[in-house]
Amino acid sequence: MKIRTLILALVFIAGISLSALYLYREYFKAQPVGATQANIAIDDLYNADQEAAQALAQLQKSQEKATIVTGDKSGSRHIALTFDGLTDRAIIQQILGVLKKYNAKATFFVDGLHTVEDPQTLSDIKDAGQKIENYTLVGLPKMETLPIERLAKDFSRAQKIIKENAGQEPSLLKCNDTKYTDQVLQVAKACGFKGVVQSDTVFNVRQVDTSPEAMDAAVAALRPGSIVSVKLLANVEPVTNEPGKTDQKPAIDKQPGLKEAQPDGVREAEIALTVEKLLIALQKAKYNTVYVEDFAKVNSQTALRSAGGDTLSLPIRITSFLQAQIRALFSFPTAYAAENVQQPASEIKTVFTTEQALSYTFGGLTKETVVNDVLERLNKLGIKATFFISEAEMKKYPQTVRKIIANNHEIGIAIRPKDGESLDETRSNLTRSLTFLKAQFGVSTDLVKQVSGAVTDTTREAVGSLDCKLIGQSINIVQTKHKDYTSVDAIMGEVFKKSMVSLSRGQILYFRMDFYTDDQIVGGLLESVKLNKIDNIGYATFYDNPSNNSSNNSQYTLKSVGAILGNSRYTYQYPVNLQNVPTHLRHDGPEIALDNHNFLAEASKHYIGHESVNHEDRMIEFSKMEERRLDKTGVIHTDEKVIFLSFDDWGSDAAINKLLYVLRKHNVPGTFFVITNNVLYNTNLLRSIAMEGHEIGSHSDKHKPMAVMDSQAHKYVKTQDKEEYLKDLSTSYQKLREVTGDVIVNGRPALTRLFRPPTLAVSKTGMEALLETGYDYIVSGTVSTNDYRAADVSQVVETIKKGIFSEDGEVKKGAILVMHMSDNAKYTATALDILLTANEAKPDSDPSKFKVGRLSDYLFDGYSQINRKKTLRLLHGLDKAPK
Predict the structure, then answer these.
(1) 449 burial via Cβ count (<10 Å: 0-12, 13-18, 19+)
(2) pLDDT tens-place string over residues 638-670
(3) Cα 822 versus chain centre, distance
(4) Rounded Cα distance, 643 and 200, in Å
(5) Residue 544 Cα to chain centre, angstroms
(6) Residue 847, Cα to own-chain centre: how many angstroms?
(7) Distance of alpha carbon 217 from alpha carbon 281, whole angstroms
(8) What integer is the mean pLDDT of 675-690?
(9) Where does the chain hold its CATH 3.20.20.370 domain(s)?
């Protein structure tokens, strides 16, 4: 009996000791503050040869295998939901919205290739509070057949790409349709993965069952504790479920928008709807969603218990119990009223605004000379910035804080949560900082920034619960490798790549004042960024620039984050609420049913061509007889002296803002035909075009021409099949609608169903896809200015004049000018300014004076490009428009 008592006492003491050690590490260990690297080059991300070599060397030392993470066998009614591979960013955002709507948790296994193409998607996933793990480099199936060297290289490259773009290192790996052989598991472990994930069931969203009942039945067949995966990555072979499982095929539902015919699968635009149906079915079946990482922890603990046996189980359980009790003893419970509970805060890295403003933010007060230098330069430049200050800094440097406040800069709270810090601890620390700021300095703020480490769900929840805003940054100027640099130009050259011509509206930049060895670097950087990446956005010629023309409002300003966030005149919701989009811009598909008999007749009404596009040049699949029925004039039917300005492609703020200023200066409208592939990286600029009263049309998503010259066959050939056209056109329109669909200026929607063909090339297949997906008119134009390769301003001026005027000086009524908004069309804005200024100086009686119109005002219901006479009669009300 005494021996038994002695053993229990020893176990109890051991438990106390382990608990004390655990608590000491949790509560008293120092949290290092490290600089976050930013703007890593894509080439660097792909180069993981060193990491792969290290993994292979590790394999020589150890044959240890990664754990296979499987479902929870406890029988609890929860499932771990994962998404495999990345797809279009707009679709991911819709999925994130659905997850938020149903309060669902998910883990996104992202592939390295798509991460490099669209790194912002990882930020979207993190901001939504979901998890990110590794899906290999391209989601290649059957990876068990690959040699060790290839596996190591694939896993290492993907890991490096994801780590650099997500700011965290994945601990779990999932391979597509791959057997987890000993070799795969050993390489995974050597590459740093704790576990590889084995799904129980895979929902392939491109193989669709149209019956909602089938979805309910599929969910009913799930085993509680399963890992359920939704496959997003296209063009990979389907995953076969384990024996006894049935591949689930979520049903689709219709939504407003452009029609994309995919009879054998889910349309891309409807993927989020299939996810929503899955979540609805899970809720009906009383399932909760958990992160697959939670299952990984359970698997790990189970393995530990199995390895330790019964001898270890008792002290481990005692230690866990004592840890919980001691935590409870030293924790102070806080009561929060249910009605005051807030949603987790999303990290704001760019403000959704159309205001011509962006923000400088600063952190780190330990170097007083640097702070003083920064304040002096900000004051000289007239910049108001936001300074994020921790509680410790407020206590240690009160005079510096007061100096910042005295200079009318904004104050936010800087936090550095410790690893494993609880929600109550983070919230308590933040509350204390807010209270101290108000009590000691008389300043209230709702802006919070986590200045080091990855932002966790705990941080988001703590910030949201106090009704504060969590501020991040679009660009982190601080990079670890620059610590000892003495040249501002050298840092600028590495932070801003050549393609980054300018900054953008709503962006937030972050500078650390206590980082660089050289105390002049921060001040030099803030001046250089303004001069080279912000001031160049404004329109400045020798006769019209902000310094000599008070009416020139083209320049961007630097404001505090709070000032931009608080200006509701310019801020907006993204994506827009579809209910606020006009009905005719929401409907699905064409108003007229198309078939082989009426296609050509409809196409001839809705195609505004170009004189150089014909059977021999950039037109395919039409016979010579059919070609004769298609327009080649490229002019709008009108008897007014009106012309139309159109701009193709996409560009930076530096290019497009200059065009917007010139159009605003002369009070004329334009039509912007946008390539949407990269437009979601700068939604503020697209929204600004619309808000200024201009029209938005599509120039496709990927800018693939309908016809290209085959150099070997010496003839034009198509670049896509019809399904690819449908997908591209639908995606492009959806992106435009999500940003501008609710914009109405002077009673007229900004968004249109106008389309400008890439390179003006056309094909019958492409036209069919356009009309089937609901586009109204295919608009080429009268003259291609080739402004993107002009040598100087005068060349662009002469080209535009030839497009507007005939040889005898008369206005070409209805002429459409094809110009560009890209950064290489650097003379277009100035050329337009010159021509429009000259036009305004002419008396109204001058026969060469023209006006500028909106295409939508002239492409009215019943307009027919092939029938000028009938169109003009309708225009003047002499005929009734067709019903």
Answers:
(1) buried
(2) 999 999 999 999 999 999 999 999 999 999 999
(3) 20
(4) 62
(5) 36
(6) 49
(7) 9
(8) 96
(9) 42-290, 347-565, 642-859
Question: Can you tell me the distance from the alpha carbon of 249 to that of 232, in angstroms, rounded to the nearest whole number?
Answer: 13
Look at residues 348, 391, 398 and name the one whose alpha carbon lies nearest to residue 371. Answer: 398
Structure tokens at 607: 């195609």
Cβ distance 635 to 812 under 8 Å? yes
Backbone φ and ψ for 168, nearest 5 degrees, come out as: -155, 155
Residues 112, 158: contact at Cβ < 8 Å?
yes
Reduced to 3 states (helix: H, G, I; strand: E, B; else coil), residue 607 is: strand
Residues in the chain: 883
Identify the pLDDT of residue 316: 46
Which one of 3.20.20.370, 3.30.470.20, 3.40.50.261, 3.90.180.10 gives the CATH number of domain 42-290? 3.20.20.370
DSSP H/E element including 360: strand 357-363
Residue 566 predicted with pLDDT over 70: yes
> pTM of this prediction?
0.66
Structure tokens at 108: 């996104």
Residue 860 and residue 871: Cα distance in Å, rounded?
9
Matching residue, tokens 């070599």: 53
What CATH homologous superfamily does 347-565 map to? Glycoside hydrolase/deacetylase (3.20.20.370)
Fold of the CATH domain 642-859? TIM Barrel (3.20.20)
Buried-state track 856-867, b at ≥16 Cβ within 10 A, e below 16? bebbeebbbbbe
Q: Give the type of residue at 845.
A: S
CA distance 516 to 718: 55
> CA 22, 393, 443, 386 torsion: positive or negative?
negative
Residue with tokens 């009605």: 339
Work out the burial of residue 877: count CB atoms within 10 Å of its CB; fewer than 13 is exposed, 13-18 middle, 19 or more buried.
Answer: exposed
Give the burial class of 3: count Cβ atoms within 10 A of its Cβ; 0-12 exposed, 13-18 middle, 19 or more buried: exposed
pLDDT bracket for residue 301 (50, 70, 90) = low
Report residue 97 CA to chain centroid gap: 14
The letter for the amino acid at 75 is G
Bridge-based pairing state of the strands 227-231 and 288-290: unpaired
Give CA–CA dist 58/742, Å, rounded.
56
| Closest by Cα among 629, 637, 621, 882 to 767 | 621
> CB of 250 within 8 A of CB of 214?
no
For residue 799 the two structure tokens come to 């080209």
Q: What are phi and psi of 576, to 5 degrees?
A: -70, 155
DSSP state of 790: -
* Closest to 387 measured CA to CA, from 364, 411, 415, 358: 411
CB under 8 Å to 553, separation ≥6 — which residues?
A: 356, 546, 661, 664
| Better pLDDT: 120 or 350 | 350
- In whole angstroms, what is the distance from residue 25 CA to residue 20 CA? 9
